[in-house]
Amino acid sequence: MQDWKQSLARFNCSSTSKAVWQLINTVLPFLAIMALMTVLVVRDWPYWMVLALALPATGLQIRIFIFFHDCCHGSYFASQRANTITGYLTGILALTPFDSWRHSHNVHHTTSGDLDRRGTGDVWTMTVDEYLSASRRKRLGYRLVRNPFFLLLVVPIWFLIAYRIPGKIGARSVWITNLALAAIITAFSLTVGWQTYLMVRLPVALLAWSAGVWLFYVQHQYEGSYWARSDSRTVEDAALKGSSYYKLPKVLQWMTGNIGLHHIHHLRPRIPNYHLQACQDAVPVLQKVPPLTLRKSLKSLRLNLWDESASRMVGFHALRGRKREPSI
């Protein structure tokens, strides 16, 4: 085991040249497409053309979010100052406050796969026994949250709103991000109109956040995933068994910044996105993790509860014939 852990260590480093090149080949095209979409709206071209351009812009925004994500882990650049500055700037482009999101995401990494420490930075997951003993209102709420349409259409809108509200942790980053967005909207309002801003920005933001919610969901909610109580959970199991290897087509892998190699990311969060594929190719133990394909990943939408007795995710259909426990 020690040998493969040492093999991971050489990928646990940052490359300024790779990080800068990623910013160039992603941020500049993103801004160019957004500018072109603005021109089309102003000149009253058919709106379907604007929406068509929203698709590649969405892919680029997701990729920018991965850079932001690496900055939150302090892995994108060797300099932590550079990570913070880049994190704030890419966070503005991704509509996400740096310090606030970094805190909840780090909690997620600490508690991933831990049944005793759920609830921060993760997807709401109940065990079968918890669901059966819950009140009717809580069960209905849980079913609503786990509904695919609610999850992929309503939850992204909620996140866009929730990240505008300062909390106890990272409030300054929320205010800075909000002020930057207010300045951008003001500039649009004084030039081409706030309506133009919404017509250009909203489709990209909603599509990107919907895709982001899906990625986050399928990274830990899939057939063969892993949950355990704190006293038996290990970091290696939570990573290699509880974080998916989402094997995407190369174009989608590029747009999602290799985040599909999530088993590696949870094993070593300090490995930046631009080293993940090389790490996968070099370490045999990582290649033993069964890949989750696009087709197989769709089955995850039918997996809603963790069955502790069987150590697997099950759907609501598995509750048929199970007696409901009285709520406390």
Plain-language structure description:
- The protein is mainly alpha-helical.
- The protein has helices at residues 2-9, 16-42, 47-72, 80-93, 98-111, 128-133, 136-146, 148-162, 171-191, 194-218, 235-240, 250-255, 262-267, 276-282, 284-287, 294-297, and strands at residues 126-127, 245-246, 291-292, 305-307, 312-314.
- The protein has one domain.
- The strands form 2 sheets. Strands 1-4-5 form a 3-stranded mixed β-sheet.
- A hairpin with a 4-residue loop joins β4 (305-307) and β5 (312-314).
- α3 (47-72) runs antiparallel to α4, α3 (47-72) packs across α10 (194-218) and α8 crosses α10.
- The longest helix is centred in the first third of the chain and has 27 residues, at 16-42.
- The mean pLDDT is 93.
Overall geometry comes to globular
Overall helicity: 55-70%
Task: Give the percentage of residues in beta strands.
Answer: under 5%
Indicate the radius of gyration in whole angstroms.
Answer: 21 Å
Defining key terms:
328 residues, mainly alpha, 5 strands
Summarize the structure.
Helices cover 61% and strands 4% of the residues. It is mainly alpha-helical.
Summarize the SSE layout with pairings.
Blueprint: H1 2-9, H2 16-42, H3 47-72, H4 80-93, H5 98-111, E1 126-127, H6 128-133, H7 136-146, H8 148-162, H9 171-191, H10 194-218, H11 235-240, E2 245-246, H12 250-255, H13 262-267, H14 276-282, H15 284-287, E3 291-292, H16 294-297, E4 305-307, E5 312-314
Parallel strand pairs: 1-4, 2-3
Antiparallel strand pairs: 4-5
